[in-house]
Specification:
Largest sheet of chain B: 7 strands, mixed
Shape of chain B: globular
Strand content of chain B: over 45%
Distance between the termini of chain A: 41 Å
Distance between the termini of chain B: 36 Å
Number of strands of chain A: 11
Order of helices and strands of chain B: EEEEEEEEEEE
Helix content of chain A: under 10%
Largest sheet of chain A: 6 strands, mixed
Radius of gyration of chain A: 13 Å
Radius of gyration of chain B: 13 Å
Largest interface: A-B, 21 and 24 residues
Order of helices and strands of chain A: EEEEEEEEEEE
Number of helices of chain B: 0
Structural class of chain A: mainly beta
Oligomer: heterodimer
């Protein structure tokens, strides 16, 4: 079967660091995407991990462990505008993405 | 910055009516997708399209759905006879990498409400 799990909601304080975890089980696997989605808007691309390890892009970093079926998105120096849903999506090596339910992050002052 | 554009932004239709959702993908992209998101639920894959044919479709994409690239710029999703459960946000996406699923850019979505 195909399954993507991530927490439903998280809260954090402005300036803090937050880690959003994602575990996946797919029949094939090529890589793992993270998207940001503000309410009522389109998902916007954040990162794509194919190889194991950490990839850093400014305040956002993403980690992948293929052997553990695990990824996380790390957000540093949180800002109010980071309040959004963060979608984990697996590329099962077919012509589609499989999305998790998304993690709704609320950043408080 | 190039973007995927979708029209209309919101469509209200009566059950049983046909709707066509329109998308203009990024101009040099070769791979096109439709996804949908029912309110409060996850984004679900509907169909992918490459080289003028469907490359993959989900169980949701049954006989009432069809896609077309009628000219060099538009990519449309047609729902032949809408049902209440088709109410959702429909996202078009495109990607331009060497294979499907390299960074996909999403449009702003069409909110379809079936009454």
């Amino acid at each position: 079967g195909q399954n993507i799990d991530q927490p439903t909601e998280m809260t954090a304080t402005e300036g803090a660091i937050v880690q959003i975890n994602c575990t996946y089980q797919t029949s094939g696997f090529n890589g793992l995407f993270w998207y940001q989605q503000h309410a009522g808007e389109a998902p916007t691309f954040l990162s794509y991990n194919v190889l194991d390890g950490l990839e850093e892009k400014g305040r956002f970093s993403s980690f992948l462990s293929r052997s553990k079926g695990y990824s996380y998105l790390l957000l540093k120096e949180l800002q109010m505008k980071d309040s959004a849903s963060y979608l984990c999506a697996a590329d099962p090596n077919t012509d589609k993405l499989i999305f998790g339910t998304g993690t709704r992050l609320q950043v408080f002052p | 910055e190039p973007e995927v554009t979708q029209t209309p932004s919101h469509q209200v239709t009566q059950m049983g009516q046909e709707v066509i959702l329109r998308c203009v993908p990024i101009s040099n992209h070769l791979y096109f997708y439709w996804y949908r998101q029912i309110l409060g639920q996850k984004v679900e894959f509907l169909v992918s399209f490459y080289n003028n044919e469907i490359s993959e479709k989900s169980e949701i994409f049954d006989d009432q759905f069809s896609v077309e690239r009628p000219d060099g710029s538009n990519f449309t999703l047609k729902i032949r006879s809408t049902k209440l459960e088709d109410s959702a946000m429909y996202f078009c996406a495109s990607s331009g990498g060497g294979r499907m699923n390299t960074e996909a850019f999403f449009g702003q979505g069409t909110r379809l409400t079936v009454v």
